[in-house]
Write a structure and sequence with these properties.
Elements (H helix, E strand, L loop, with lengths): L2 E11 L8 E17 L3 E8 L11 H13 L4 E7 L10 H16 L6 H16 L7 H6 L2 E7 L2 E6 L5 E8 L5 H6 L7 H20 L2 H7 L6 H4 L6 H10 L4 E4 L6 E6 L1 H16 L5 E7 L6 E2 L2
Parallel strand pairs: 3-4
Antiparallel strand pairs: 1-2, 1-11, 2-4, 2-5, 5-6, 7-9, 7-10, 8-9
């Protein structure tokens, strides 16, 4: 096989109480990427449609991730990459992760899959490092593995797949403003109190327990961020109203998607997820800011091969 076309899904990172360690994979929005083997060694990005991003491999997240992988595998061929960007940069739903994971997944597949999807995470993280300054895995892990993933440890890297309840849906509203991850990280505090850390640990444990047991009420009670949301939410127009509106419409809870500006809600069932989306849309209309709403089941398979 010399060419592969992929659906590279959007993701929600942090999931309220899981800063830099918890993420989930979406099914309704993602990029399309085609990767082709070439006789000439190296990585070439031939086209990017839908976004103004650099074609130089060393300056592009897909290119950087791909270069890291071929440095490790040392194939006797090269690869060209073309990307249809449907996830806007700075949206908070894993635009850079979609590009990075698509590149490493496709190249690995064309080489006969010498590495597992979990082993590919460390290479996709290099693309995230270029995008945000930090090699975090809470977007790339669910994009590669599907469902929910927990980064138990970064050193050594230890990724755990988390069961996703069958009726769980995600709603995401994306205000059409760009909030760069680097900027969103700049407002975070270096030190936190023991009290806040204890509350956060309890919520993260409760959320993971709720996912495994399909206890939707417990999931809702645990969707509380004690550490990051209080300082990042001021960067997002109408954040408090959006979150409250989704819950009033029946959502279990919600929070900031990744570093923002997107806001997510989790719901039991598609009908409730759509109601939450409509409620958030009505609130966002008051700002005059263009926006998109995505309603999606949890994508339990991650990246998908289209052809």
């Amino acid at each position: 096989m010399n060419e592969i076309t992929l659906f590279c899904p959007a993701t929600i990172a942090n999931v309220s109480c899981g800063f830099d360690v918890l993420g989930l994979c979406l099914d309704s929005v993602g990029d399309t990427m085609t990767i082709t083997k070439t006789p000439e060694k190296g990585i070439k990005i031939t086209s990017i449609i839908g976004a103004n991003l650099p074609l130089e491999a060393e300056k592009n997240v897909a290119g950087v991730a791909a270069l890291a992988l071929i440095e490790a595998l040392k194939p006797d061929c090269g690869f060209s990459i073309s990307i249809q960007k449907n996830i806007k940069a700075g949206s908070g739903i894993g635009s850079s992760a979609a590009s990075a994971t698509g590149a490493v997944f496709g190249i690995n597949y064309l080489l006969g899959s010498p590495l597992s999807d979990k082993e590919l995470v460390q290479y996709a993280m290099q693309g995230e490092k270029l995008a945000s300054g930090t090699a975090h895995a809470d977007n790339v892990a669910p994009a590669l593995l599907g469902g929910f993933t927990l980064v138990r440890s970064y050193d050594p890297l230890d990724i755990i797949a988390i069961k996703s309840p069958s009726k769980l849906y995600a709603t995401v509203i994306h205000p059409q403003i760009e909030l760069k991850t680097k900027d969103a990280r700049s407002v975070l505090k270096e030190n936190i109190s023991l009290k806040k850390a204890t509350i956060q640990c309890g919520n993260l444990g409760g959320l993971i327990s709720g996912l495994y047991t399909e206890d939707y009420d417990l999931i809702g009670r645990s969707l509380h961020d004690e550490l990051v949301e209080p300082v990042r939410s001021i960067l997002i127009p109408k954040f408090d109203e959006l979150k409250a509106g989704a819950v009033t419409a029946g959502a279990l809870g919600g929070g900031i998607s990744g570093s923002g500006p997107s806001v997510f809600a989790l719901s039991k069932g598609e009908a409730t997820a759509k109601k939450a989306g409509q409620a958030m849309a009505n609130i966002m209309k008051e700002t005059g800011i263009p926006f998109e709403v995505h309603v999606s089941p949890i994508n339990v398979s991650g990246i998908k091969i289209l052809s």
